[in-house]
Amino acid sequence: MAKKGVSSDTSHLYDGKVVRAAAPSRKKLAAKMTSSQELPDDAIPEVHIPSFVESLFGGPLVPKMKFLPADKMVQTLQMLSGAVMILLGVLTWIVTPVSGTVWFAAADLIGAEFLGLGIHLLILLVALGCGFWGIFSRDSRFLLASYVLFILISLRFASSKVTFEWVEFDDGLIQKVLLVTYAVLLVMYIELTNGVVRFSMLDTSIRTGEVYVMNVKKVLNKYHISLVVTPLIAAGVAAITLMFKDIIADFVGLFSEISATRLEESVELESVYGVALGTMIVFLIVAVVFAANVPGRIQKIRENAD
Amino acid sequence: MAWSRKSAMFGSLAIALYLLGLTLRNHQLVTVAVVLLSFLTWAALRASHADVAASGRRMEERTEEEAGVSLSRLSAMRKLSSARVFEDGEVDVTLRIQNHSPLSKVLEVRDSLPEVMRIKKGANYILMELGPRRETLIEYTVECPLRGFYTIGPVCIRIQDSFGLFHKEKELHVYDDFLVFPKTEDLKDAFVKSKVPKIFTGAVNIRQPGPGSEFYNLREYIAGDPMKAINWAATARSGGKMMVNERERDAVSDIILILDSRAVSETGPVSRNSLVYGTRAAASLASFFLSRRDSVGLVVYGDEVLSVDRDTGKKQLYVILTKLAGAMARGETPLQVVTNRILPHINKGSPIIILSCLEDDSTIVNAVRDLRARHFDTTILSPSSLEFEFDARRLDRTGYEVLKTERDILISELRGLGAFVMDWEPDMLLATALSGARGF
To answer: What's this model's pTM, rounded to 2 decimal places?
Structure first.
């Protein structure tokens, strides 16, 4: 038993003594599980909250605006966007006369019509410049500015007349075809430039390992097919609405020649309100298709087909 | 039907141009609006969202089938390489996606991961074309930097039109749980020894000389040593000095780890705070003592007092590690409540190691006084949240100095009671901190 005031261990017994100790064998087993005590630098993930413009262009894909150099797919889209933009610029110049615009009215008021024309041309050139810069630097802010300017230039009071100030077309059909082509090109320009940004995001995400893409070619093929099919369908629908007067007259003509002639000569149907009526009818049919769940039913049949 | 911002922009632009076109009697604007609307309509038709739109029911009322015909025949399975890893460990995830439909699909698949996980290899976000009645394997590796209970899943699948105008999402409720244990540090020496070992049948050894069966060391003969302990061969070699064999005492040491997991212990950055350090230290100590065949118990106190009964062996290590992995910073139970509750159940003299930031608890001094009064070998390892806060620049110099002084006074007071106290700074290794605490 240890004495009071003396440590209960046996260390005092070794004072001045030679001790040769063998290490206990289990010491080797002690604390085998090892790892570094260092804390991970990036244990807390960085959360990137996309800005409005980023999310507008990114869609549901990973929004990231710092891109790696463009790959072949993106370069092709850039070239295509550039070509569409030039065509759009030319068509905009043809189908959008300066008369009826605010700047023309203002210039006319001060007796300097050329100023109105100058502003008109300037808007178009700035739209093209912003578009070029936006496409090749893949900067969505410039692309947005370009869209706004392309739309701004077409805001004019037109009195329901399709007038091309720079080129004269007597044939109404050619006018309508040009108008539809212009509209399709504008929408395709928006879509293609959007595609440049979207695929740049995707490409960057693939190359940085954030996203992995399987069967890239098939995925891209579907996009390419859509780029061809969708404008054709949109152009078809737009042509139907623009030529609604002729279609309705032909249809009514099956039952009554006189009514058909009256419809053909109708000023209201020729005007923009005729187009509105056509649009209403076309989209009413589309609404019925949606209400009857036709696409869903078709999809269901296709999914269940063995 | 889920609209993207792009489709919303197209839709509102189309309506605006249509109305402007009618107002300005401008064919051009109306035509652009019609083309935009056609574009949107076609994309919506292609994305097959009409089923939801036509049902007239709210989202939460949708049945699985209505949630999307196109997504209804997809399934997922997941396999993890391990259900238990240590911090900074890696888990290989294999996700199998199956398309039971006769149609090929372009899918975006994202396997939901906890925020703190980092992808080491591969990707959990895949864009793919999955052929009819095909399946594919997605493999990726995640690194787990912080302890805890984690769940991987659900698998989010999105199908959208080519232009990204509309999309439909579905969550496949495939979940896999796994556990990340706090990482342990190699402790080379035994710093803490019981002065009052517990002896029982089948006991294992404690590193102290005494009556036992296993050889411990050789020493010179001291009067009173039994004759049978004399090592004659060693005596012959030592040139006349009488040498005796010393044996290890058959016993185990009860070591109690007390971890502070009160809300205040999480003060500081997510990966550098008192609780993170405390759990790592507790894991390292438990691993060390258990490998030394001591008996280790754990008490975690926060909003309640949770304890793991003393035991030995590898199973006990995993019980302790699991408890540590789940320790959450909650509540404000004072230390004295813990000591009052556990003291009657601990063998007198057992080493007690307290891992606490020593903040916001007025009972610490009394609790330690009680422990010392009962001759418990008390060691306090205190990760300093002041350092974490100061390093993260959340505390100014003056505030730091004032709080540091208060802390130093408290530590001095605790040392005055006979406890080994270590002010554990963030960059200090646990072994160094323990050495400091024990005065080595």
So the answer is: 0.70
